[in-house]
Sequence to fold (328 residues):
Amino acid sequence: MKKLLKSLTLILCFGVFINQAYALSLPKLSKYDKKITYAVFNANDVFQIAAANGYVSVVEFSKDERIITISTGFSEGWELIDRANLLFIKPKAYTTKFVHSENPEEGNAISEIVVDPTPATWKTNLIVTTNMNMYVFDLVLNSKSKIYKLSFSYPDRELANINELQKKLDEQIEQDKLDSSLNRVSVPRNWDFYMKVNKGSENITPNFAYDDGVFTYLGFDNTKSFPAVFAYENKQESILNSHIKKDGNYDVLVIHKVLPQILLRSGDKVVGIFNKGYAKNPLRSTPQTSNDEEVERVLLDEKSQKRQEIESETQKAFKMLEQRQNNE
Fold:
């Protein structure tokens, strides 16, 4: 008896598990029109579509999904047409042949008859695969509860997308701040530089050099090659942080320091840069020119476009969520 009870318990538990794993999900009705419905996608749910003879219904998947395969248990009775992320569903009549014998001496006769959709015989299932998900449906005929449209929502995916967009936006804001700082318009404070050039090193010599009290700027035209830059202090060399910016026809090597001596190297080529005005006008921060506002506007146009696009995408995602919640 105990073994029998254990067996029954296992069977019941297994049945509950199956029922939960493949639960039938009825779409949620729109508050504006009950024929417009919504469903939250769950890979373990079966979604019911109630159709009616003479009407077409449409299923809307996410905009980035594309339908790959469609399979139904009763293809003769259902018309299924896919377009991008939309699936149009319509019950249809079909023609079949009927063999009968009115006169045995004359043999069998074959007639064609049209079978019209009926709720009792048109119920079937539908399986749709897309590039992202698999969907399982029950197709039923029910003229009283027919739906015109079923739209799926994907809260987990939408939240992940919003979080990713927000992360990109934060990163872009930080990058814009850095770019704005690195590309600021500086006021030349000191042009008192001279250089010593080793033989054969002419093509790594800068066309001009100055510092603004914070950074050192070396300008090169398009006939020159960019060298590696080193500090030369106490007869020792150490690599310097730098970045490159455009200034008219020149590429400017911006060195993140002001030093009395700088070495430029490229293979065997060596150039020494000497700052004769070193420490004459020290600054803690770089002053800005009067056209900063114009420069910042140009930087916004050229470098903040990506940030604006990300902001727009984030706002659209939030609006879509808000609109869907209002409609449901």
The radius of gyration is 37 Å. The chain has a mean pLDDT of 81. The first strand starts at residue 23 and ends at 25.
